[in-house]
Structures are given as C-alpha cells and as structure tokens.
C-alpha cells in the first residue's frame, strides 16, 4: 500500500484542572488565539479548548481537556515530556524572556535544542513547554500569527515545534516511527548541558514542525499523568482518503487502533506505540470554520452537529467560561 509521508505535527493535547486560568494564560500571556471552545467528544462533561494561530491551521494547535479533579503529574518515562512552540527568531526569545519576567512565568535561561535557540518554561500547572526559534529552520512551514494578539506579531507563536518523548527503551518507539510511520532519523544532540542524549526523527519536509525528539531515561519510573501532563500527540495526514489507508495499513500490520474516528473539525485515528504513548493521525481539514466565522472563532460553545440535540444537558454540566472579547 502506497502511503504519503506524514506532514508533521497536527496538534498536541494536554490536561488542565482549571479552564479559566488556562484560557487566561494561553491567550493573554502566550498570545495564542482560542479557535474553538468545545467539549471532549468522548466525555462531554469536560471542556476541550483549542489554542492556535489565527485560524487553527494544521500544525499550530495546542489543546487542553479540563479535568477538574486531576491530580498532580509525577514526571517520568513513556510520556510526552515537552511541547515546543515556534517563534520567528532568536530575537523573539529575548522578547519572551522579558515578557515571562513581567508576568512571573517560571522559565530557564536561553539554551539550544538541536542547534536552535530555545527557552524552556512552565505554565501555572507545571506544563512543560519551550519556545524554539525558527531563525535557522528549514522544512514544513508554520501558521500565521493572529494580528489581534496581545503579543507583538513579529514575535508571536505561530506553530508547534518538535515534540519530545521520554522513554525507557528507544527501540520499540523507534521501530514504530521509522518502520510504520515513515520517519527517518536525522541526528542526535545533548540537552541540558549534556545530561540527556536526544535522538531526532523527522518526516515529510522536516524541520521544527515535523520532528519528534526522543530522550531515553531507563532509570526513571513511568510517568503518572495529571494536570500539566500531555495526553497525546497528533500527526498530520493530508486527507480523509489518506487516513482510511492508514487505518487499513495499521490493521495489516496487526497494530491495534481506534479505526476511523469522526471529530467533525478533522478525522482521526488513534493507537499506542509499544511504550504506551498515545499517537493520533489527524486530517488537515475540514478545519474550525464550519460552525463559526473566522471573526468569532472560540467565542461560544461549539458542538459538532451530532451533539446539538444534547446541548442543554452538556451546557448544564459545564462551568461557564467567558471567552468573548
């Protein structure tokens, strides 16, 4: 079966305990646009918030499930241990360092990831994040920053960068990335002053928007997920027809998966790689403007058509979240 290469990151989905504070941080502090306020389609009593570039272009979405009783995260292996966000230049990182100091955002000193300047930081729930400079980047393009953001457009976040996994054993994850998903190893580097060796894999056009970085730490316990942890990472598939080929391909290779899943804003497929990390393949379209105009994205609770008859019951289980203005 002839499959087209995956195009890079589609979105990363994480866990928050507090949708209001989450909305405040990711829109007002990080300057991302809330492009969709909806619910977790597998558990409609919880919010699912999508932050992205100006319209939620594929490869720009950082999403959160609100789990109000989520406990703390105990970091460890077999996890998505770092989400990176692309900014335009090395100069942008200086801007962000000053902004983090102004808003009391916990952050480290400037460093490098795979030869790119970067700035590691945490949100109010210790979500592990980093900004990465696109100044010397080549490969898949990012999105377009929202011009109504409180962050200067020339320094604004405009896409997802490399996703970092921490595993106890590289080989099983490496086999899935290279033999099943079609990634190629593109290099190695040291992170945190040589403490961790990182192996880089890339797909499609490569570059910041199409890389998976893997750290091996066999001496750590398995991560116990909670608020501030990442639930899954999704990779870009061109079309629904292509996604259905992936469904068949995984079945042929005896890899258990969800099969085809309708998410309305995109179509998906889920499976776990051998170390237990949840991967999703998601289509580039249809996008977020099927039920809201570009100008009003994220302002009201959006529900896919197949949930509209449950709207009253769904809204009654959610705490109000004002996302207008």
From TrEMBL:
Domain VOC: 8-134, 159-284
InterPro entries: Extradiol_RC_dioxygenase, Glyas_Bleomycin-R_OHBP_Dase, Glyas_Fos-R_dOase_dom, VOC_core
Oxidoreductase keyword on record: yes
Record's keyword terms, sorted: Dioxygenase, Oxidoreductase
GO molecular function: dioxygenase activity
Keyword match Oxidoreductase: yes
Name used for this protein in its record: Ring-cleaving dioxygenase
Originating species: Mesobacillus maritimus
Native organism taxonomy: Bacteria, Bacillati, Bacillota, Bacilli, Bacillales
């Amino acid at each position: 079966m002839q499959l087209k290469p995956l195009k890079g990151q589609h979105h990363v989905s994480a866990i928050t305990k507090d949708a209001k504070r989450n909305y405040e941080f990711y829109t007002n502090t990080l300057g991302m646009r809330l492009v969709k306020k909806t619910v977790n389609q597998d558990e409609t009593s919880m919010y699912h918030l999508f932050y992205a570039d100006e319209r939620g272009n594929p490869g720009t979405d950082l999403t959160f499930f609100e789990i109000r009783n989520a406990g703390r995260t105990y970091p460890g292996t077999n996890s998505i241990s770092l989400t990176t966000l692309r900014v335009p230049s090395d100069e942008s990182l200086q801007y962000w360092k000053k902004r983090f100091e102004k808003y009391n955002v916990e952050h480290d000193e400037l460093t490098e990831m795979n030869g790119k300047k970067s700035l590691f930081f945490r949100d109010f729930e210790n979500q592990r994040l980093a900004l990465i400079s696109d100044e010397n980047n080549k490969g898949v393009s990012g999105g377009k920053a929202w011009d109504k953001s409180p962050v200067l457009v020339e320094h604004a976040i405009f896409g997802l960068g490399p996703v970092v996994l921490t595993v106890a054993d590289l080989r099983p994850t490496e086999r899935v990335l290279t033999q099943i998903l079609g990634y190629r190893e593109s290099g190695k580097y040291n992170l945190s002053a040589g403490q961790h060796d990182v192996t880089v894999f890339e797909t499609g056009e490569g570059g910041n928007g199409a890389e998976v970085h893997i750290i091996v730490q066999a001496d750590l316990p398995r991560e116990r997920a909670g608020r501030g942890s990442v639930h899954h990472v999704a990779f870009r598939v061109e079309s629904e027809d292509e996604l259905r080929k992936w469904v068949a391909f995984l079945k042929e290779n005896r890899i258990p998966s969800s099969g085809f899943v309708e998410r309305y804003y995109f179509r998906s497929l889920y499976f776990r790689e051998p170390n237990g990390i949840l991967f999703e393949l998601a289509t580039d379209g249809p996008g977020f403007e099927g039920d809201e105009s570009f100008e009003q994205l994220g302002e009201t609770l959006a529900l896919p058509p197949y949930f509209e008859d449950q709207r009253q019951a769904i809204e009654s289980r959610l705490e109000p979240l004002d996302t207008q203005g």
